[in-house]
Design a protein that fits this description.
Elements lengths: L6 H7 L18 E9 L2 E10 L2 E6 L2 E10 L2 E6 L4 E9 L2 E8 L6 E8 L18 E7 L4 E11 L2 E8 L2 E2 L3 E6 L2 E7 L4 E9 L2 E9 L3 E9 L26 E3 L4 E2 L10 E7 L4 H17 L4 E9 L4 H14 L5 E7 L2 H7 L11 E5 L5 E6 L8 H19 L1
Parallel strand pairs: 20-21, 21-22
Antiparallel strand pairs: 1-2, 1-8, 2-3, 3-4, 4-5, 5-6, 6-7, 7-8, 9-10, 9-17, 10-11, 11-12, 11-13, 13-14, 14-15, 15-16, 16-17, 18-19, 18-22, 20-23, 23-24
């Protein structure tokens, strides 16, 4: 474990001009509310957090991500669960730190940030007048070479706003922020995603939208209130090739290093969900947590879940170790197999009977006779509210029907 990589660089990037004072004693950070402010592409992305002892908790609306805060003298290190990323840097005082957000498996992915012990909100309000954001929008995101559609979902209490954007391949998870005058600002950070969305409220529309994603993503967006707008049905986005048939004898490595196939005895005459996933994918983690509840509820009635993970990593040994840690950290009870390197094309090589793999995650539902009965592309997680609730009700009803056959 490394604790700081570029001492001079980190201090230089700090908004505080005071030099860091070297010490051979661990500095105790003040317990309570903190705010992290990431600097990316000339914009500041604020994130709420708290520190209590050696626990740093990242807060995005209903999501609370607990991390271990390791302090060595005046340096700190935070490994973010699940997503192969970390925070590290220098403690400037017991109320202020300066550091870097680093994605471990992505070359040259470094974003500076500062953090302060403060009672300030995530976004500081400058206006006493607050407009009202609508609950549902039809969203157009201009990505330069194409425009993508999304559903904007928001819930406002006084000036505070929570919500998410649902797309055909997943959702933007837990966004949190405010409406300040006629300005909407929401953000999120989970170790994989770092998002900032801003826009001006104009009647029933959101205009002049800015979407900052991590180190390089910079897009424009606009939206109009539309309670009736829906995206394509997730059950109709991916299909089986004409004449395509799953190879049930295809063998893949489990997290224990065993060779496993769907034709193995433990899966015979069982209803099965095959999950195309990756530990680097936040939507996949949301789906995995839900599938864990399904497994606990229905496994003794004949349901099996097989996760096929496509991963980033230097070699097989490190990938299997990562998958084992992921399984342990998230208390995953069902089978996890290694499918290959991350990427849609690599996933399609393992699942050639599909017309495409357009999203991580994708779930394939098999009946007891190994017929594919449904393919669900993407995942609307708990950050999407009613969409998630409706999905869970429909999914459990469908599983019960398959089990009863």
């Amino acid at each position: 474990m490394k604790y700081f990589i570029q001492f001079v660089f980190i201090v230089f990037l700090s908004c505080n001009s005071e030099p860091a004072k070297k010490t051979d004693k661990n500095i105790t950070l003040i317990n309570g509310n903190w705010k992290l402010e990431f600097s990316s592409q000339g914009y500041t992305i604020p994130i709420s957090a708290s520190i209590h002892g050696n626990i740093l908790t990242i807060i995005n609306a209903d999501e609370k991500i607990e991390t271990d805060l390791v302090i060595k003298n005046d340096s700190f290190y935070v490994s973010i669960p699940n997503f192969n990323s970390h925070l590290e840097g220098i403690i400037l005082s017991n109320k202020k730190i300066s550091g870097l957000y680093i994605k471990d498996l992505v070359e040259d992915y470094v974003i500076p940030f500062t953090a302060n012990n403060t009672q300030d909100d995530r976004f500081v309000s400058t206006s006493e007048n607050t407009s009202t954001v609508k609950s549902k929008y039809e969203v157009n995101i201009d990505r330069g070479d194409h425009t993508s559609k999304a559903i904007g979902l928001f819930k406002q209490t006084d000036k505070y706003v929570e919500g998410s954007f649902a797309t055909e391949t997943g959702d933007y998870r837990y966004l949190e922020g405010i409406v300040d005058g006629n300005k909407l600002s929401v953000s999120t950070f989970d170790g994989s995603h770092l998002f900032l969305f801003t826009a001006d409220l104009k009647g029933d529309s959101l205009v002049n939208g800015l979407y900052i994603s991590g180190k390089t993503g910079n897009y424009k967006w606009e939206a109009g209130a539309n309670e009736n707008f829906e995206l394509s049905d997730p059950e109709k986005l991916t299909s089986v090739n004409k004449g395509g048939k799953p190879d049930l004898n295809l063998r893949l490595l489990s997290t224990d290093g065993d060779s496993v196939s769907l034709s193995d005895e433990q899966f015979k005459n069982k209803v099965k969900i095959v999950q195309i996933t990756g530990t680097w994918c936040p939507n996949c983690l949301d789906e995995t947590r839900y599938f864990n509840t399904l497994y606990s509820k229905y496994n003794n009635k004949g349901l099996e879940i097989i996760s096929v993970a496509f991963e980033r990593g230097p070699d097989l040994d490190s990938i299997l170790k990562k998958l084992n840690k992921y399984k342990k950290d998230n208390n995953i009870e069902y089978t996890i197999l290694y499918g290959g390197k991350a990427g849609n094309k690599n996933a399609l090589e393992v699942f050639p009977y599909l017309d495409k793999v357009m999203s991580f995650p994708t779930a394939i539902y098999f009946d007891k006779a190994n017929n594919i009965r449904k393919i669900y592309t993407g995942f609307y997680g708990p950050g999407t509210g009613k969409y998630y609730d409706d999905y869970t009700i429909t999914t459990e009803k469908f599983i019960e029907e398959l089990l009863a056959e």
